[in-house]
């Protein structure tokens, strides 16, 4: 019995020894999902802690130079946290990184709230004012700090493999579309340096996940791509080559991220706005169109519905006098606009293009419709357009045997009103080819851009600050990488005589919110060479006039009283050559037939 006991004892010792050896091996080879999540959570918390500490230091001193130093450190750590904060708590991230513009919420629900912005951009502008408002600064710092503490105390990170991939992709796209544009560094102009910081966090997260890689080479190659991008970002803001950065760094990172998700054998439960397989920003497959539309609930007979919608789009019988179709005002050869200026009572606003309309959250120039299907209703009811009711449109459609057959086949004659609108919207959602000269070049399919055209893109994305409102790749006001909001702006557009701000009050007309007077949706600039005249009233007939308007500071630059103007500058100080190069770039955004 004693021998058996000793043998068992020896066996137990051997097992314990093997366990100790196993535990002593490199942690990365045996890291569990829960420990990876814990390590990332610890990283996130450490950045928040440092951010809060530096904000505390701002209010602990009255020496402005030290306050500025502490702000820079607080902002640095906030940016380190950005990939995690922006993914896990989108609403709070948006508040903490908001521009210094009044926030209007709840108009649609008739529960309108107008709030002053908080966060780092507002602190930055306040701290660097010629005359510092110390009380305002203190209050802003305290509110921002309190929000960060709330986030930290209620931190929830659920990081399955597909969450991590989504997080990384979001941040790479955020760097390309807002990070390198100066979107959120209004005074210090530190956006390139701050993009470096966010790349550091990307690299740390990927290294933390190294046990997920079956290919060590793939891990090392991705880290190398990140380090190369960080080196490229070490440039002066005005001369930074954003075209080459996106082409040589962003696109390879996106492509390798697809390789990583294959290596990890990631399966996605669904798609967000960014396609799960995107390898370039500038492609019709980069954005998941169903994320923006009702197509996600109706995916049968899509090609047939598009053809049906195109027929309806071009049919004048849908209007009261049988003299107007959607295509009457949205002319393909004119970039799906109409080329008309506002001159008479029957056209109160310039006709916007419907090309690339699929990628936005608000429709009509004042964003009064929430979907393309809803926009069709507005056109039908407008006395200056179709001047009909949807019931009357249904009657006319059903009198056409071909249409009647299509509705039965494609929709089984259910919800005929909505399905007519859905078919038209489905066709409009095809008007996004991403096949312009610029798209083909930045995707590497051809090398035909001139130096002036490339320089124009770099100006658009940099010094000229166009991309802080017209976000790549669609170049409209729907904010990447989440694409849940389409921005409205007040730029001070003049009336046709250019003697005062346009009399059109824009968004204000819907809900009578004072802080929304003269606010209009930011449109796409794709196909802009075909869509003149410009602005909501067609006041400018050339792109040069448009750029000169911005260059001089918008309505404020024309001497108008516009305290709520949202342009992030007083004047741009662009040279004549830079204006020409900007125009050259925008002309490359014309889709090819």
Could you list some keywords that capture this structure?
2% strand; Four Helix Bundle (Hemerythrin (Met), subunit A); Cytochrome Bc1 Complex, Chain D, domain 2
Describe the overall structure.
- The protein has helices at 2-24, 33-59, 64-88, 90-96, 120-127, 134-153, 161-177, 191-208, 216-232, 242-263, 302-313, 326-329, 372-381, 390-399, 401-411, 416-428, 437-442, 451-461, 508-511, 543-551, 554-557, 576-587; strands spanning 103-105, 113-115, 488-489, 520-521.
- By secondary structure, the protein is an all-alpha fold.
- The chain has 4 domains: 31-159; 160-267, Four Helix Bundle (Hemerythrin (Met), subunit A) (Up-down Bundle), CATH 1.20.120; 300-428, Cytochrome Bc1 Complex, Chain D, domain 2 (Orthogonal Bundle); 445-587, Cytochrome Bc1 Complex, Chain D, domain 2, CATH 1.10.760.
- The chain has a two-stranded antiparallel ribbon with strand order 1-2.
